[in-house]
Specification:
There is one protein chain. The chain is an alpha/beta fold. The chain contains six helices and ten strands. It is 28% helix and 28% strand. The strands form two sheets. It has an eight-stranded mixed beta sheet, sandwiched between helices. A two-stranded antiparallel ribbon has the order 2-8. Strand 9 and strand 10 form a beta hairpin. The protein is globular.
Length: 191
């Protein structure tokens, strides 16, 4: 059974975007791209909120075709084209998209059905609103966080309206030369 893993860049003070959704503070480089690429290459399902999905769709399907495409662009574009995409959205309901499932109601039932059909991790890319909805229904199984060396002071928090304590188990960490620290946690659902 697949696990839902929230993959998120985060500021040291817990924000995933600035007040207006800004992400210009996120540090990314080839070292991080290679590290992430290794992990996602084994997955066959990606989960997005509508806004993040639309942002991904506007870039990744043709990113590898550009004359100046980077190694990361080529690799991620190839992965994106073959991976099954699951999108949480109220506004996209009843829309037919290639290799994409839209979940607009019965969130817990539908997410659990996706988990049953998947063997590997199901990475939830960014998507703070979708992440908040999944946290509220206890559907996130882990957090793959890239802590950036910045304090934003305000913005969109990763954890919002959390109702109860959630125990986490650190299963790995990695420090990058640019100052980003990767933390990989599983949710301990037994406590």
């Amino acid at each position: 059974m697949g696990k839902i893993i929230s993959f998120m860049h985060i500021s040291l003070d817990g924000f995933v975007a600035g007040p207006n959704g800004e992400m210009d503070w996120i540090k990314i480089n080839e070292e991080i791209f290679d590290f992430v690429g290794k992990r996602i290459s084994t997955g066959n399902t990606a989960l997005y909120g509508r806004k993040t999905y639309e942002m991904m769709e506007s870039y990744w399907p043709t990113a590898a075709d550009k004359p100046n495409a980077s190694k990361h662009d080529r690799e991620h574009s190839k992965w994106y084209s073959k991976v099954h995409k699951v999108v949480l959205s109220q506004s996209l309901k009843n829309v037919k998209l290639v290799n994409t499932t839209i979940i607009s109601e019965r969130l817990s039932e539908e997410i659990n059905a996706v988990k049953q059909q998947t063997l590997n991790d199901i990475l939830l890319f960014g998507s703070p609103t979708a992440t908040h909805a999944l946290i509220q229904q206890n559907l996130i199984d882990g957090y793959w966080l890239f802590v950036n060396p910045v304090i934003l002071g305000k913005g969109i928090p990763l954890f919002k309206d959390v109702q109860e304590k959630t125990a986490l188990q650190l299963i790995g960490s990695h420090s990058f030369d640019c100052g980003v620290i990767e933390l990989n946690y599983l949710v301990n659902k037994k406590e």
